[in-house]
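Quick one - inputs below.
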Amino acid sequence: VVSGDHWAHHTPSLNGLSYRFAVRTDDERLGRHLDSLLAGLRAPGPVDHWYSVTAAVDGGYDVTRDDEPVALAQHPGDAAGWLVWDVNRLTAEAGGAHLLFHAAGVAAGGTGMVLPGPSGSGKSTLCAGLARAGLSYLSDELVALELDTGRLLPYAKPITIKAGSFAALRALGPPAGSGSGDAEAWAGDEWAGEERLLPVGGAAVAVGRPCEPGFIVVPRYEKGAPTRLAPLSATEAFVALAVNAVNFKAHGTVGTDALGALVARCECVALTMSDLGEACRLVEDLVGRGAAERGAGRAS
Amino acid sequence: VRPEWPEPGSVPARRPGASGVPLDDNLAIYDDVGQLLILLNRTAAGVWERCDGSATFEEMVQGLVESHAATPEVIAHDAWETVRKLAELGLVVDAAEQG
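Output:
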């Protein structure tokens, strides 16, 4: 695919679990915004698909992929949202060689955590809170389990936060390492529509590398409930992952065995939460205890 | 599955292509053919393990009676229900009838 040179801005090559793409736009300012949002997916290599975001005559934005329509958005923030939605969909298709979970993922000290859950479980908000606290970001939507190695692979799309959940995240403040532009986005910005996209991969949030899994945390937002962690049996963790597996049937018995192995090697807990800050502290403590136990194990 | 199956002389056998993963006291089974994931509790998992195509249903029940505290009548009933359900799900066949 040849990109025309009349575009005001092109992103670098981007890659989501083998879905390789780039974005071009005739709106320089929107282009810089998309660059920031998609920084976590930067990867040198060929571009298989081009997204184009163009200002329409009626003031909206046309979003196309390889000249096929994706969406007509009224607001540049919504155009970014549609673009990310399409990338998610095609990344899930491209990553089919892996066992994919509808889950968030973070990592600390090279040990990964899977947070499976349906929409509304609070996993993206929790993931954003944990990334803000300094954990490495893997994904807030799609976690890939590499079947031949058992590793978790990052899909560092921008974090998508529903408008109703953003106040709790904003109350925690921006990530410690964020630059001015990222801080604005994390504080709430002009691009926000129904959902807010938070940049990752820049100064604000570090993107994790492929890592060994160590924790499965099943989050559930429950308004007014005490925020608490509770142990989860292997059966409960297995079921939570299985029902949130995107392509379980495609991997059959191999996927079943991989899921069993994943559960067997992880500490599994359920997290009921109504207080984001407290939830983040509990998960950070869990990760810290795990690291201490692994250190003690190596020393003995 | 015939209404009376399994009978005392039936030989229940797990169908190839089903993978079992132990979880706590339970067993998760995925069947590649039927694309079905089911969870068996400990008792049902014990029945599943005995569906190896080497024993008749009567012998299977006898083995379960020797390892469980419930009465033989209760065990026979529960084993019949479990084997039948597994057969209805396509996970167990009769090795004698399959040849």
